[in-house]
């Protein structure tokens, strides 16, 4: 067990350092204090690190039965005054956002806090001129260009609720998100660059809007100079709109619990859930978690490769960094363009200190010649982050050895759209890391593991369903327009607790390892088998690039296992490979985990944020091809056809 060894440290000193944890002993004490008195803990953090127009009357108002949570009730603020205005006196000329374009020969932008202020205020005035008021929903469908961050902040400036939809989603997905929250205006671009490709976004917008009666206006940014249709009376060019306005826009005074944004996350059933985040709690937690998890210091250059269309981009490209007065890099392109060295080139170019990416990107890059990495000077790096899915040991080691050169701690950050901020993660240089472990909860976060009967599992060296026992400031407040669904999804599995949907294990010292969605557990002949460890075993075969394992109904065993495998080396004989793969599984997990079917495929059905949609593989393998559910979030829908063909061949 981890124990504090600095008992003489006074409470006062610790309180002052709440916001910046710098030793393991310090973490242990702060964690204990946060657990003993969460209200006082968050009260202190909120009071000392933000600018408020009026302080709160009540820190926390939590109604377990109704599943309602309110933080800092009675407070008045505007989050953009915290992200921008309060830095202007000291950091006006410091770069807030470095924007790196898709094409490395195009000029980058270095946007100072002064310039950001001016651009956000102008955009806020454009929204106002177009009739947008506090509480209106604004849909943002933009590629990774500065206008995306600026628009998000402009909404927050005037109290409009932003709903960013990743600019890679289809017309159907865009329309369903616009309609669910009845957005009044859409901010879009004519098109986007993605590697060597030029995509037409406006045609997707036009198709979507045929089904969206609530949209009155579309503001279009000209990014790629496409010849697009502009619908009279509805569509307006952003450049022209900006020419009518000045750069002063008074920030709207918001209540702590006023809605800041909606962000859709795919549910296990068809309809996406619009997770609602509110102003003060989200601000406090995104700032606090950013500061500690990345150990951001003044003048550091921080880069998160996510898209702002995901929660990671909201919390850790825009809000968390700007709340801390940081310099945050925004990258428009993809890791493979012009070649597989692009990430590393950008790290060298800007001397990036903290780098935050996803395991899927790490695995993809690890598959290419190491010369793409070694060409660049990565010595500026201090902290490496991972997010989005469990990072397997092989990828962790590759990241640690080749990118961090064994000197930059890897923070494997576990969290969700619903949690608003990072929940379980090492604090670099504080928490000793352990491959594949997200390690310990941040202060203020109380995770627990439950068995299938709903009993809390005491002690260490155990596994169960991951729940959070006590609210934290950035917990999503509801599912937009459907509080019942929120209650059912998150608060009904285990009474009075937030259920994450993930399974986890807790090792002997109390470190957490997230093992994957609980629905990824397959019971074969009465044995509970997690698909993740089987996939890890398969991936150890030198010919395998990536794999996904699912269960399908089996007359005798209840369920049997099928593996979908992408090969690095296509020329290998499939029969032999099947035997070799099953031999590895047998030796690592046991013969019970051997695969009944192995399908070699060229790709896996993945969401645009890199998560394998095992639901689709399960349905296809169960011969339910007609009933695949919502596939609108897939990156490449053609993969599904290939999967169907492969599975049909063995049915
Ligand atoms: C931030 C984000 C949430 C789900 C979550 C879990 C998986 C995220 C992880 C991780 C293992 C990590 N997940 N981070 N699993 N280790 N470090 O990804 O939000 O898109 O809502 O996904 O992603 O299964 O429940 P979101």
TrEMBL record:
Signal peptide: none annotated. GO terms for biological process: acetyl-CoA biosynthetic process from acetate. Keywords: Acetylation, ATP-binding, Ligase, Nucleotide-binding. InterPro entries: Ac_CoA_lig, ACAS_N, AMP-bd_C, AMP-bd_C_sf, AMP-binding_CS, AMP-dep_synth/lig_dom, ANL_N_sf. Residues 85-472 form the AMP-dependent synthetase/ligase domain. Residues 534-611 form the AMP-binding enzyme C-terminal domain. Its EC number is 6.2.1.1. Residues 27-83 form the Acetyl-coenzyme A synthetase N-terminal domain. It is an enzyme of class 6 (ligase). The keyword RNA-binding does not apply. It comes from the Bacteria. It holds the Pfam family AMP-binding. One of its GO terms (molecular function) is acetate-CoA ligase activity. CDD domains: ACS. SUPFAM superfamilies: Acetyl-CoA synthetase-like. Belongs to the ATP-dependent AMP-binding enzyme family. This is Acetate--CoA ligase. The lineage of its organism: Bacteria, Pseudomonadati, Bacteroidota, Flavobacteriia, Flavobacteriales. The gene is acs.
């Amino acid at each position: 067990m981890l124990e504090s060894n600095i008992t003489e440290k006074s409470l006062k000193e610790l309180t002052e350092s709440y916001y910046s944890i710098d030793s393991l002993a310090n973490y242990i004490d702060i964690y204990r204090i946060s657990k003993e008195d969460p209200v006082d803990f968050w009260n202190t953090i909120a009071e000392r690190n933000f600018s408020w127009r009026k302080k709160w009357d009540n820190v926390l108002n939590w109604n377990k039965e109704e599943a309602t949570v309110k933080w800092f009730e009675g407070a008045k603020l505007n989050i953009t005054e915290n992200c921008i205005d309060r830095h202007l006196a000291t950091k006006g000329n410091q770069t807030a956002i470095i924007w790196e374009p898709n094409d490395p020969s195009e000029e980058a932008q270095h946007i100072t806090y002064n310039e950001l202020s001016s651009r956000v205020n102008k955009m806020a005035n454009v929204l106002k001129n177009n009739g947008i008021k506090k509480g209106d929903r604004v849909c943002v469908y933009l590629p990774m260009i500065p206008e995306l961050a600026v628009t998000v902040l402009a909404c927050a400036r005037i109290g409009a609720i932003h709903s960013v939809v990743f600019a890679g989603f289809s017309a159907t997905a865009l329309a369903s998100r616009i309609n669910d929250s009845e957005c009044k205006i859409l901010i879009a671009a004519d098109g986007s660059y993605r590697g060597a490709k030029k995509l037409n976004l406006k045609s997707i917008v036009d198709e979507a809007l045929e089904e969206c009666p609530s949209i009155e206006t579309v503001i279009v940014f000209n990014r790629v100079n496409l010849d697009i249709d502009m619908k009279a009376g509805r569509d307006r060019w952003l450049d022209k709109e900006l020419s009518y306005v000045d750069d002063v826009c008074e920030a709207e005074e918001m209540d702590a619990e006023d809605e800041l944004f909606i962000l859709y996350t795919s549910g296990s059933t068809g309809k996406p859930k619009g997770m609602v985040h509110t102003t003060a709690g989200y601000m406090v937690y995104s700032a606090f978690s950013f500061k500690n998890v990345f150990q951001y210091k003044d003048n550091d250059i921080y880069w998160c490769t996510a898209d702002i269309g995901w929660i990671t981009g909201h919390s850790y490209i825009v809000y968390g960094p700007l709340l801390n007065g940081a310099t945050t890099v925004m990258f428009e392109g993809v890791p493979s363009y012009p070649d597989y060295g692009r990430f590393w080139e950008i790290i060298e170019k800007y001397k990036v200190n903290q780098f935050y990416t996803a395991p899927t990107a790490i695995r993809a890059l690890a598959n290419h010649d190491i010369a793409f990495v070694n060409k660049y000077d990565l010595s500026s790096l201090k902290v490496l982050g991972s997010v989005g899915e469990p990072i397997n040991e092989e990828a962790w080691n590759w990241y640690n050895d080749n990118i961090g050169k064994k000197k930059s701690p890897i923070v494997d950050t576990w969290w969700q759209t619903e949690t608003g901020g990072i929940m379980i993660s090492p604090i670099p240089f504080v928490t000793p890391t352990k491959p594949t472990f997200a390690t310990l909860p941040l202060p203020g976060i109380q995770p627990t593991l439950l068995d299938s009967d709903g009993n809390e599992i005491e002690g260490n060296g155990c596994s169960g369903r991951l729940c959070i026992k006590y609210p934290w400031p950035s917990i999503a407040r509801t599912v937009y327009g459907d509080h019942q669904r929120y209650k059912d999804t998150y608060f009904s599995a285990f009474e009075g607790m937030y259920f994450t949907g993930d399974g986890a294990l807790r090792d002997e010292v109390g470190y957490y390892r997230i093992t994957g969605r609980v629905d990824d557990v397959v019971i074969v002949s009465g044995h509970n088998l997690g698909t993740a460890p089987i996939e890890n075993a398969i991936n150890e075969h030198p010919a395998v690039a990536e794999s996904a394992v699912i269960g399908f109904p089996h007359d005798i065993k209840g369920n049997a296992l099928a593996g979908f495998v992408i090969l690095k080396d296509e020329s290998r004989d499939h029969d032999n490979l099947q035997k070799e793969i099953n031999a590895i599984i047998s030796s690592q997990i046991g013969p019970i985990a051997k695969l009944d079917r192995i399908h070699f495929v060229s790709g896996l059905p993945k969401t645009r944020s890199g998560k394998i949609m095992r639901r689709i593989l399960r349905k296809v393998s169960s011969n339910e091809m007609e009933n695949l559910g919502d596939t609108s979030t897939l990156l490449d829908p053609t993969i599904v056809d290939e999967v169907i063909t492969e599975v049909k061949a063995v049915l």
